[in-house]
Amino acid sequence: MIEAYRRMRDLVGAEVLGLLAFLVIVVIAFSLATPRFLTGENFGSIAFQLPELGLLTLAMLVPILSGGLNLAITYTANFCGLTLAWILQVHGGVDAGFGAFLLGCAAALAVGATAGLIMGLVIAYVGAHPILVSLAMMIFIRGLGEFLTRGGDISGFPDFIRPIGHGSVLGFPIPLLIFLVAAAIWYIMLQRTRHGFSTYMLGSNLEATRYSGIPTRRTITLIYTLSGLMCAVAGIVMVARFNSVRVGHGDAYLLITVLACFLGGVDPFGGFGRVLPVAIALLILQVLSSGLNLIGANQHLSTAVWGLFLIAVMVIRFGWQRLALRR
Amino acid sequence: MTGADRDAAGTGVAAPAVSFARVSKAFGGVRALSDVSFEVLPGEVHCIAGENGSGKSTLIKIITGVYQPDPGAEMSYFGRRVDSVTPAVARGLGINVIWQDLALFPQMTVAENIAFGDILGSRPRLVHRRQMRAKAERVLDRLGVSLDLDARLNTLSIAERQIVAICRTLVGDARLVFMDEPTASLTHSETQSLLAIVRKLSADGVSIVFVSHRLAEVLAISSRVTVLRDGRKVGVYDTEGMTQSRLTELMTGKTFDAEVISGDRSAERAVLEVSGLCRAGEYEDIDLTIRAGEVVGLTGLIGAGRTELGLSLFGMTRPERGAVRLNGEPVSFRSNRDAIAAGVAYVSEDRLTLGLVQPQSIADNVVLPVLGKIVNGLDLISTGKKNDLVSRWIRELNVKVGRPEDPVSTLSGGNQQRIVLAKWLATEPKLLILDSPTVGVDVGARAGLFAIVRQLAAEGLAILLISDEVPEVYFNADRIIHMAGGRFIASYDPRALSLAAVEKAVYA
What we know:
The structure holds 2 protein chains of 2 kinds. By secondary structure, chain A is mainly alpha-helical. Chain A has helices at residues 2-12, 14-33, 40-65, 73-90, 98-126, 130-149, 162-166, 174-192, 194-204, 206-211, 216-242, 253-263, 275-294, 299-326; strands spanning 153-155, 168-169, 172-173, 244-246.
């Protein structure tokens, strides 16, 4: 038993095991509380809700690893969604063709990457603080979006994009598959590429990394560009899920992505953190909120529970480290 | 010897400032101190010498009440026996420590920093600005130094901050001050003025306990030295008649024969050729040739432009005029990446913030400059290649590491410096620039580092050794260049001149 635990721990890390244990406890608790929790329907709805938040969290993860932050993620995603919606509308709205959709997606990805690129360039070459730069970008994008849409929403899309938000392949929701593919790409990027390696190193010590011959400015620029690109993917999925886009849609996700990163053991000061624990943390948050919803708790209460949960995790982590030090 | 000191030592009237006997301390199963005795006389400048891990800090922490010694220890302060001490009690007795990081408040003014501790306990709990300034002023006068009382601390030089830290202890009527590596980041002349202040305090009757890696200073400033090794006391020695090499022997238990290794390499192929290199305000008219297998020592006081020249050769800054040739090819580096690609490696004097990414693992630090060598055909990092490279260099440089996945910060100074060397050697350099490579490295570990440097030179590497410690370049370089005010002002041959002659020329 202990041997099996050790092998598991060496394979995935103590962090992941701890979070999985948490997940199991939460699932068991809700299953006992309500019979409607442990149902395919409930897990189906979790699987459809998780990806939006998940994709945005991936967009947040990489800047945090580099010792920064991207506060513009939700509005970048919004604006990318608007870009796609606008192109669809120009090409006939409900009657738009598949070519228009592809064009719209490409434009959305380009817009997201550009927003990230601009932030990255300013942070890397001007040396401005990521919080200020991304905050400025967030306000800029929000204002521009509100100006262009006059505060209204764009809706009415062709039917064939519905499956991206609501369809399933072999029983797997398509949004979930998109998230899993994105997470896998992020995993490979962080663990196996030179860019990912440099991200961790410069997140711990920018100057020492630069002295070692890493092009730190180029790396930072790429970090924010990729973050913007991931926002665009999230924006596209959101368009398909809600069949309409509006500026400000999903802006409550912003702080929750930060929460999910820290819950997943990402160091707030940069340099440490992995994709898998963050993904599990996301799942825990989603399970918590749907479980609370099912037992009839107020939605605001579920936000409060998330906050409490994060505090509890930090206290437990502290205790665990003390224990590990004593041994 | 000072007046107070002579009085204490000569007549034996004054009781020792501290007198500890049979002090032992174990942490878990590790014995940090075994049966150590320690005594400081009033007004004495006493030094504790020992390598890292010899128990110096533990001893200081016991005397200042941070740690409790294991039962059986006898402690007395100023002739009074005590059973146990807390930090507050020790401070009340006039025992103070200035740690290496100084623990000052960078955003507050000089006056606030000096008077802070004194205000803390006072009642009513109000801050009297005028009183505070007056207090600070009195203490500065006592030391005979002038500092702007309203200057924020972060605008001061390290040397000036050091003085503020000393003043802070004096406000609280310190009678014994421990100073932990006070000169580690000071220039030669700053060190001299700090030592002058220490002498002044000692003449005033304040005892000073000095901890320093720089043995020359230890011998210059203190009257007695307590040597610790592996948690045991080796002995207490008068510094009169003591030599650096004898002290090193006592600290490490080994003998190191310092021999001039200088040789004539003028027949070898030139690796680096620099002519007429200038960068305004940093260095001027630099002509320098380093040949294969040659170690060129570059010395001079801090601020002479040594590090600036090194940084330009490493591509971090661009020279304004002049030419650099590497292996006969003209080179002009746009960044340090160009320099690394061309075969230049630079070991920074600041290992903590520039040399290594401290919180990350040993393995990751070794491969950082050579990521291109550990990727597979798809440009993805190959764990196998990475492990091979790391274990090869750890073996080659004989680094004592637990696991390569441990943070590099868990290593000792000497082993960290070996990791820095490993990461640069992995880039297969032709020219290795070592900028003050022994800062914060134990005496014993230094010898090991230089053995590696000599081995590398023997393999044909060209080495530029920058150091402000003349003995270091004297015993490890083929020839010595003296830099001052941004220019090369003299060149010395260790075979033709004595160490004392070179030291006199550089430090004069």
